[in-house]
Design a protein that fits this description.
Layout lengths: L6 H17 L8 H13 L18 H13 L8 H14 L2 H12 L5 E4 L15 E5 L2 E9 L9 E7 L10 E7 L5 E6 L8 E12 L3 E2 L5 H13 L4 H20 L1 E2 L2 E2 L4 H29 L8 H23 L27 H7 L10 H12 L8 H19 L1
The protein binds flavin-adenine dinucleotide (FAD).
Length: 417
């Protein structure tokens, strides 16, 4: 690792801090319009799509500058961009694989939140094994006709466009018959049904397609080569920039220290309990480990290296760390940790009850499960680390062995009959 903050980096950080001091919203953003306006502000300040080429609205910024912005936004718990999925996934996918016409048509509107995007990959029976997806896109004349169902699509209920993976050649081996298609979510035949989550919110949806017609011009890259495009998307999703996660964890940790100092149990401050102190020490140590892992990725990115399968190590670490830490927080806070509303301000996750994106401790606890599932579950990350980082033999898929055995038993049965 070869990394240090230059005087220019420090000056840039000071500039971002000053901008945030002036522009950070003072209360929770309630409406979609308020959320769009915040994203536009971030874009106009040059803090969105920073690494993109200038001709598509980016800054060609260095990974270090992107990391600094990510860190500073997380430090003050700034609201995310409402079109974040478009910015983190769709924009880079189009810049890499889209036609010039697609780039001109879509990329600017992603950055300024004019059009919001969702990712239409997972299906009821295709999550980890995404290549088994069954949504069909048949070519009829100069259109695709799409039929099928997607699930767990974040923000689909308020999206204008979706990045869809669909099967365009049912006879090809499963990884080779998939295409990547841009779908207008307002097209006839698209039905979006929000799903209520354990956290109480409904950010996910099911999306049903019944004879949805999409122009062939909306194909991204080559026909039947969507799987390779999805791999680029997923590498963005697992991402190199985990420095913002370090800042976010640290901000939560600082707040936990304040609350544990205010909260009394059996006549003493919770923070004076030796067992609690040990647990806090462990939490802090784990955040520092995450910091050094993230700095290693940042250092590689500064040298122009793209995140490879090693990014699975950080993905696995930060998502499991968040889950572990949220469990410890619940243990330390006791019943106060479980209040969703009516939390006394001195014990709340957001000391200012009117502001803050993270909501309650209870919400943060429920949400911490998500990181171990999206962008490849923890088990999938372990498989990737085993096979592609450590070079261990490929996983033995029990379901495939069972299917083979069943097929053999079937053949034997037929022969006997
Ligand atoms: C917060 C969040 C946001 C999401 N947003 C989107 C979105 O916008 N668009 C979208 O398309 N999808 C989205 N998803 C869906 C996500 O991609 C899938 O949930 C994920 O890929 C897992 O698939 P699954 O839910 O079908 O679980 P399954 O694949 O059925 O897995 C079930 C369990 O089996 C384990 N497992 C599966 N295969 C193996 C294996 N080979 N070896 C060992 N263990 C295995 C898994 O780890 C898991 O514990 C989101 C999910 C979450 C949690």
């Amino acid at each position: 690792m070869d990394l240090f903050y230059t005087p220019e980096d420090e000056a840039f950080r000071a500039q971002v801090r000053a901008w945030l001091a002036e522009n950070l919203p003072r209360r929770r953003l309630e409406t979609l319009e308020e959320q769009r306006a915040w994203q536009r502000k971030l874009h106009e300040a040059g803090y969105l799509g920073m690494g993109w080429p200038v001709e598509y609205g980016g800054q060609n910024a260095r990974p270090m500058e992107q990391a600094i912005v990510g860190e500073e936004l997380a430090r003050v718990n700034a609201p995310g961009a409402v079109g974040g999925l478009g910015v983190s996934i769709v924009g880079p996918t189009l810049i890499h694989h889209g036609t010039e016409a697609q780039k001109q048509r879509f990329v600017k509107n992603i950055l300024n939140a004019e059009e919001i995007w969702c990712q239409l990959y997972s299906e009821p029976n295709s999550g980890s094994d995404l290549a088994s997806l069954r949504t069909r896109a048949e070519i009829v004349g100069d259109e695709f006709v799409i039929n099928g169902q997607k699930v767990w699509n974040s923000g689909a209920h308020r999206s204008d466009w979706g990045l869809l993976l669909a099967r365009t050649d049912p006879d090809a081996p499963k990884h080779l018959g998939i295409s990547c298609i841009l779908v207008d979510m307002h097209s006839p035949g698209v039905e979006v049904r929000p799903l209520k989550q354990i956290s109480g919110s409904s950010e996910f949806c099911e999306v049903f397609f019944s004879d949805v017609r999409v122009p062939l011009d909306n194909l991204v890259g080559e026909l039947n080569r969507g799987w390779q495009i999805a791999q680029t998307t997923l590498s963005y999703e697992r991402g190199g920039n985990t420095m913002s996660r370090v800042s976010r964890q640290l901000a939560t940790f600082q707040r936990l220290l304040e609350v544990a100092g205010a909260l009394r149990r059996d006549g003493t401050r919770v923070i004076d309990n030796p067992v609690v102190r040990q647990k806090l020490g462990r939490m802090y140590t784990e955040i520092e480990v995450l910091r050094y892992g993230s700095l290693r990725i940042l250092s590689a990115a500064e040298k122009g290296q793209r995140p490879g399968p090693e990014s699975s190590v950080t993905k696995l670490y930060y998502s499991e760390l968040d889950k572990r830490q949220q469990e410890l927080i619940q243990e330390i806070l006791g019943p106060y940790g479980q209040l969703i509303e009516g939390q006394p301000a001195e014990y709340a996750l957001d000391s200012d009850a009117d502001y803050g994106e993270s909501g309650s401790w209870a919400y943060a606890f429920a949400w911490s499960r998500a990181g171990t599932i999206y962008a490849g579950s923890s088990e999938i990350q372990k498989n990737i680390i085993g096979e592609r980082v450590l070079g261990l033999p490929k996983e033995i898929r029990v379901d495939r062995i069972e299917a083979q055995q069943a097929a053999q038993a079937g053949r034997a049965g037929n022969g006997a009959g």
